[in-house]
Specification:
Structural class: alpha+beta
Distance between the termini: 50 Å
CATH superfamily of the largest domain: Homeodomain-like
Helix content: 40-55%
Radius of gyration: 23 Å
Number of domains: 2
CATH architecture of the largest domain: Orthogonal Bundle
Length: 188
């Protein structure tokens, strides 16, 4: 897909590290013979040393090699494996009291870096993602069991019923009782 952007527009995009343009064009640095995604966080080169390419084959045929930091030759985020590992940890440990430090230790990065990267890649913090997992599980239990709301609260890893009700209402736009009644009306 071709983009109609001037050299100066593309330069501004790489200066701002805008992820929305990843895959639409590539920045090649003449002095290092390396090419990057527009969102690469590496130190920015001098403007006179930059060329832009709109196709990955063009840039590679011109003799440039991929940046090891942003991995532009990879179709997905270079940290996707780390995010998948963190997500799997959250899914597998949703019943337990999980803190950011636990997840960070599991995936082998700092808490600060994990939270920033997780939010950047998923749009949610690990805590918000964990809450979504718990509420989705609660909704499933409301639909498929006769457990009380309090039993579901503790079964899904919440330690405070008020927190459970608040988060459930925020994510599902209704209380657990209203949710169960809606399901019964739809099925009945």
């Amino acid at each position: 897909m071709k983009v109609n952007l001037s050299f100066d527009e593309m330069w501004e995009i790489i200066i701002s590290c805008d992820r929305a343009y990843d895959g639409l064009f590539y920045t090649a640095v003449k002095t290092t013979k390396i090419y990057c995604r527009p969102s690469c966080r590496s130190r920015k080169p001098k403007k006179v040393n930059v060329e832009f390419y709109q196709d990955i084959n063009e840039v590679e045929n011109a003799g440039y090699r991929a940046c090891k930091r942003c991995q532009p030759e990879v179709e997905h985020s270079p940290q996707l494996g780390l995010i998948r590992k963190a997500t799997a940890f959250l899914i597998n440990h949703y019943k337990q009291r999980v803190v950011l430090e636990d997840i960070a230790i599991h995936v082998g990065v700092s808490s600060f870096y994990l939270e920033r990267l997780f939010k950047q890649e998923t749009g949610k913090t690990p805590r918000a993602y964990l809450e979504k997992i718990r509420i989705d599980k609660a909704a499933s239990l409301l639909q498929n069991t006769e457990l009380t709301n309090l039993e579901i609260c503790y079964e899904t890893g919440f330690h405070s019923p008020s927190n459970f009700y608040r988060i459930f209402r925020h994510l599902k736009q209704c209380s657990p009782n209203e949710y169960r009644r809606r399901l019964e009306n739809e099925l009945g």
